[in-house]
Amino acid sequence: MRPILVLILGSIFLFSCTSNEKKDLSESNEWELILVDSIQVDYLGRVDGLEFKDGKGVLFNFKENKLLEFDESGKILHEQSYPFDGPEKVFYPVQLKYAEDGNLYGASFIGWLYEFNSDLTFKREIKLPFLTEAKDGGGLRRVLEEWRDKLIMYYPGRDGANPYDPFFFRDHFLLEKVDPKTGDAEPIIRIPSTSRYSSDKFYERPWVNFGILGDTLYFTLDNEPMIHLYDMNQNGKYLSTLNFQPSRFEDNGEHTEKYQYISGTQMLDGRIKQLFPTMEGIVVTFEEGITEDVFVQNELKDPKNFPLYPQFQNQVLKIVQLDGSLSNEIIIPNQIDRMVGLTSLSEPFYAVRDDEWLGEEQDYITFYKLKLVRK
């Protein structure tokens, strides 16, 4: 059954899938996504990086090379722009992470790693033992995490490894465990045999996305509907793979030669967008992708038509349990963009409103306050 959107007008909106089955609510794995409230931050600019923890958030704006910190009322606490040269230069810290001790770290999309003071002023650059070979880092996906007193990063380039090589994911360690005090790093985790990228076949180049809860690391390649689990206590030992079995997830399959780029030129692959491990289950959001016929007929290769993508695919939320059981699929309305601060299924979290999709230009940024509720 295809999931559908239910919209209740009034003080709240309700987003959910329908089900004809009657279940005991205490055992139900059917969920709905509720819009509880919203906040406005008095800032005119895009959100190109975002983190939220313990009642405050921080966003990055690419155009101004600026960080801005705010609280749950929308009040701006601190804001700071950074120069591109000099001793306090900072280059595009799109990846942001509040550590357990309250320190804020940022990493650029091509690897530079920084620590900031509590007022967002520059504190230091953390020098790593080698230069990354990535020219696009992890994009805007989640590739900077904390485990105990270490930072875990996607930072390819150890021993000159080329992340654009078709067998990079098969032949190399995938993440680095970094000591932020010294910059020392050691490689961790390999792709498991459950992933097609462990083979000698050619596929579309994927993007990395991962999260950590306790001593378990949850790792995805965005064009495979799988979540790989690793034990950080055993230096990233592989544990298992969970398949979240989306009802629709377009895939252009095996390629005949290396360096073919089919997704985005002939069709659009399904892609994992975000991953949130919680004690009650793993939340994954993804886009379904667009078939070749629809992609070609609507000239979606043309950049001017990129804004049309949401008309032909849904963005979906699903909850995965460690025993492999799966929730219903919840269609996320297109006005909801990137989510942040989702650490528990019983607590509210935030998401950026997509003003561009709505066709509205505001002089403030709106964050929706959302909650997942069991049906």
Number of helices: 3
Fraction in beta strands: 35-45%
Structural class of the secondary elements? mainly beta
Distance between the termini: 17 Å
Q: Reading side by side through the largest sheet, how are the strands ordered? A: 1-2-25-24-23
Gross morphology = globular
**Helix/strand order:** EEEEEEEEEEEEHEEEEEEEEHEEEEHE
| Count of DSSP strands | 25
Biggest sheet descriptor: 5 strands, antiparallel
Calculate the mean pLDDT score and round it: 91
| Helix content, binned percent | under 10%
Q: Show unreliable segments.
A: 1-25
Rg (C-alpha, Å): 20 Å
Task: Write up this protein.
The chain is mainly β. It has a domain at 127-342. The protein contains three helices and 25 strands. The protein has helices at residues 168-171, 292-297, 355-358, and strands spanning 13-16, 31-41, 49-53, 56-61, 66-71, 76-81, 95-98, 104-107, 113-116, 122-126, 144-147, 150-153, 175-178, 185-188, 208-213, 216-221, 226-231, 237-243, 271-278, 281-287, 315-320, 330-332, 336-340, 349-353, 365-374. The strands form six sheets. A five-stranded antiparallel beta sheet has the order 1-2-25-24-23, with no helix packed on it. Strands 3-4-5-6 form a four-stranded antiparallel beta sheet, with no helix packed on it. A four-stranded antiparallel beta sheet has the order 7-8-9-10, with no helix packed on it. It starts with 12 loop residues before the first strand and ends with a strand. Residues 1-25 have low confidence and may be disordered. This is DUF4221 domain-containing protein. It comes from Algoriphagus taiwanensis.
